[in-house]
Amino acid sequence: MTTSDTAAPASTASPAPAPGRIIGALAGVAMRTPKLTLLVAAVALLLGGAFGATLTDKLSAGGFVDPASESSRAAAVLVDEFGLTSMQMVFTVTGPDSALGGATADAGGRLADTLRTDPEVAGVLTPWDVGAHTAALVSRDRTTGAIVVSLRGSDNAAMTAAHRLAETFTGTDGAVTVAAGGPALAYYEVNHTATEDGTRAEMLTLPVSLLVLALLLRSVVAAAIPVAAGFVAIGATVGLLAGLSLTSEVSVFAVNATAAMGLALSIDYALLIIARFREYLDEGTEHTVAVVLAVGATGRAVVFSGLTLALSLLGAMFFPLQFVRSMSIAGIAVVGLSVLLALTVVPAMLVLFGHRVERRRTPDGPIEQSRLYRIARFAQRRPVAVGLVVITALVGLGLPALGMRFGLPDDRVLPADNAVHQVGDTLREDFAVQLAGTIYLAVPDLPVDRAAQVDAYAARLSALPGVTAVTGSTGTYLMGTRQGAPVAPTPGPAYLALATPYDPNSEQAQQLLAEVRAVPAPTGVLVGGLTQQNADIVDGIARGFLPALAWIIVSAYLLLFLMTGSVLLPLKAIVLNCLSLTAGFGALVWVFQEGHLGGFGTVVTGVTVCTIPIVLFASTFGLSMDYEVFLLSRFKQQWDASGRTRADNDLAVAVGTARSGRVITAAALVMVIAFSGLIFSSVAVNRMVGVGMALAIVLDATVIRLLLVPAFMRLAGTWNWWAPTRLRPLLTRFEITH
């Protein structure tokens, strides 16, 4: 059976349902006092901007490791008992002659002596000290020495101290050059570079969004209303995050991503209301009444959409990583803010300026002549062929995701010309031992009678292939043998540091970690270091994945089931969303992990930053459901007003696609513009998030919504709308249309 393109068109006129009590109350106050509402919004914008100005110094670039993980517990022992912190910085001292003598050694020695007197410095290691570690701190060509500085205090305090020390001591004096890098300074640079990128992005995306919407809506006023709502959203979002930073850790990446999300959502919701408002005006409705009807017709759709996205973001809380939880909390707050703005600021602006929305605009022609209607009909005429082609293409795009390898970000997320990145390259390429690859073994409590066994344990570890030396509180070991006289045993904590030539993100480092663990320990040992952190992250992601997936899928299914009254449509939405996300993940791995297309200008490390897939899945899944709510509510409105035959199902989908498709297309385009600020960021993590979100949204708004949805719903026919009879009285209470 084929779909007829000559089916009778449905009437565009439809009654608007009354909004819920809370929705009606919010919108009612805004429409009765529009000037006061906008004044309150303006004050909130100013206060948010002023409060947010203090946010930069409170942001964190870390939070990638579970605080309860083994590596975190090992780090706590090392910091508390020995002053060894993962928040280190490294100075490189380079001269024309040997680093172990002459001007280079003199400059390095003076710098080390000065650093040891700084109150924020916990410890200093140099190649001019006495000990087995000295060889590891000299470059292969013997011209550069590395000074490793351990810093005191919290991560944020260490970052600030690293910046201060770098500003004070880097530069060239005669023939000797001092440069600075290391994790603490890299995190500082990431924080400030990402913040600057975000500010520039906001200055660009707002005017571009206004221009694009003016062209799409054919009205400057109609375009200005959602952009104004987005502008308020950005200011309020920054202020909101500043408030959150007082009670919890807020990631710098959360600021950039949620600011873009707040802008995009506010514009999306405003577009939905304005589109409905214009339809009522086209039907001859008076301006003020059209505002009331538009809010009544779209209010619940906005709330359902926001609730779906918030619940999806809440799923990220199952992962024991502060970075992810920070993104989740910030995202949920921003979603709530965007919904509030849509139900207050947008109706207020429509009351004041809505009479100018229609200026120089001619009503649209018959829906059957629209391009989106014809595309939906094309997919309905060839549902099997369209479905096979699109699904095959999306699965093909997703195949590289099977090779995804997780890793921690380092200085390589910064631009290649950044001084910290360049120091990191020097340490990776010119030094035989990778300082970042050191494996730490912390013994919380070493009994005196086990000291000899720990001594033998350390000697065995030093004989492992890939371990260049073992140093620690019990002595120094090379190639299975203790160096020097034994250290007198004392009760209490102890530690061992295993020097390696491996990058902590490499497979060789993971293999060595497994071999270290295979050596029997004589007492309780905690394994730390970046290599162990990687293992802990993978374990944390594995533990949180199934609960998070179940939460996101079940909550999305229940909400869409209540909204549509259908058993099948929510399942369809979830499957198609997962399909587009899989394609997005595959493209992410193909570009940024494997380095195709030049890695979009980033430095390819062979791994995917561990938190990005989680953030993308939770946020993009919810954003896709945002569009699903808009689309399905249109389908349902058309279906409920029909004779409920198979042909009516096809017509409902085609008309709904044409009506909502224009809003979804405009909203998706604006969302891509909003995330383009992340795409053009000079910090690789932001760029990965931006590309991943933008690609998933483009796929979802085009091939999924315009082709796969009509094809699938054509094949399912009237089964699309089936639900158990006993549940129908309950479902009618949640019915929404727009």
Q: Output the strand order for the largest sheet.
A: 10-9-8-11-7-12
Radius of gyration: 30 Å
How many β strands by DSSP?
13
Low confidence ranges: 1-18
Largest sheet: 6 strands, antiparallel
Describe the 3D structure.
It contains 21 helices and 13 strands. The protein is an alpha+beta fold and 738 residues long. The longest helix is centred in the N-terminal third of the chain and has 35 residues, at 183-217. The radius of gyration is 30 Å and the shape is elongated. 61% of the residues lie in helices and 9% in strands. Strand 4 (171-173) and strand 5 form a beta hairpin. Helix 5 (155-169) crosses helix 6, helix 12 (383-398) runs parallel beside helix 17 and helix 17 (568-593) packs antiparallel against helix 20. The strands form three sheets. The chain has a six-stranded antiparallel β-sheet with strand order 10-9-8-11-7-12, sandwiched between helices. Strands 2-3-1-5-4 form a five-stranded antiparallel β-sheet, with helices on both faces. It has a two-stranded parallel ribbon with strand order 6-13. The two termini are 30 Å apart.
